[in-house]
Design goal:
2 domains, alpha+beta, globular, homodimer, Glutathione S-transferase Yfyf (Class Pi), Chain A, domain 2, Glutaredoxin, 9 helices, 4-stranded mixed β-sheet, 8% strand
């Protein structure tokens, strides 16, 4: 019997090949880490019906045979449990707990700092039907117009590089957040860099930033999965 | 044969009972986690001779029989290796790597954000012989007078609470950074809170902050080791 097919519902832009969601990138890297191939199914914010089977309205959603799993963190746990003999995403219960802190840092501090650089670029990638929702929800979150959030982009880039200090500081001591090889703690941070790479012409890092080498290795991982992603303007 | 005595050289204030260094608190909590008691030896910045045996000029320095170990991270690794049958500080190699990220976050983002609230309070705790060094080195680091760093304390407290977002966000999902029980990842963050508790009358957290419950549990840990610390003005 063939193994059940894996389908990953991923946020897509007006160009359905633009897959920019940082949370979907976490799931995509986690799948690749386990040696799994999933069909990437493009999804837009307006397509609630398309994922209503999942019981909620956001991607990533992973479908595995008759199972569906939502939220990137739960997808990672699901993969770790079900494919436990493949390379570990966490490396044990204790590392899973500390990885959750890394994930929280990525989802709060880092996501906000990256958003303040690329928010209008993200908007410009979106399908026309998604733009109204995105503008309204993000302008409510930031308390100002999208254009005002990114208005002083050089200053916001400096803020972002300050926010990235813990990563640069750590990379002087070890090659990856997970140690000598990447794992989920790296992917949850790397997802934020993929968000910017796919949507925006701005490079978040100066060429001499120690984070560049880490990012390069993750772009090259799994046969260049991330490096080959379709990017805006490419 | 009796076990060799443990001595922890700790930064102290004008009142030698004031032990406020966040890095020394990391080491003190790590020792307690392993069920070890160390004699706390007060040390001031001006007393380089007193720790010259360690080959460097900062505390914490742990002396264990004929061995001496410097830097809080290396002290934690030393304890984990030597007392490997006692409760784990890291919970394995993978958790040690991700804990290093937590430690980097504490030492960069969090330390800077706390400093911007309490820097003058720290200065006021110091012995007269330490004040010149402290003022010169910290004013160089921050690029302004100590008093200017903390001048708008309400704004700096808001910045700090924003910097603490990853911790608050994570604590909605699990009780400690290390999972269901505290370990080194918690202590390296908690050290920053002890720094403020010992030196400053300012409470870093609002009473309804979810981080308060976490901090309370760590204050109570090991028979109230941290809660019983001598604080300024107490």
């Amino acid at each position: 019997m063939a193994a059940p097919e894996l389908i990953l519902y991923e946020l897509a832009g007006a160009n359905p090949e633009l897959r920019f969601s940082p949370h979907c990138w976490k799931a995509r890297m986690a799948l690749a880490h386990k040696g799994l191939q999933a069909v990437g199914e493009p999804w837009r914010f307006a397509e609630k019906d398309k994922i209503s089977f999942s019981g909620q309205g956001l991607v990533p959603v992973l479908v595995h045979g008759n199972e569906s799993v939502s939220y990137s963190w739960r997808i990672a746990l699901y993969l770790e449990e079900l494919f436990s003999t493949d390379p570990a995403l966490f490396g044990g219960k204790d590392a899973m707990s500390t990885t959750r802190f890394v994930n929280s840092w990525a989802d709060t501090t880092l996501l906000a700092a990256v958003a303040k650089v690329i928010l209008v670029d993200v908007y410009n990638c979106l399908d026309g039907n998604d733009r109204g929702y995105f503008r309204a929800s993000r302008e409510k979150r930031f308390g100002m117009a999208l254009e005002a959030v990114v208005a002083d982009q050089p200053a916001r880039l400096l803020d972002l590089r300050m926010a990235l200090q813990p990563l640069g500081h750590m990379l002087r001591k070890q090659e990856f957040i997970s140690g000598s090889a990447p794992a989920y703690a790296d992917y949850c941070v790397f997802g934020m860099f993929m968000w910017a790479r796919v949507c925006s012409p701005v490079d978040l890092l100066e060429p001499d930033d120690p984070i560049v080498a880490w990012r390069e290795q993750l772009l090259d991982a799994f046969g260049g999965l991330a490096r080959s992603a379709v990017c805006v303007g490419a």
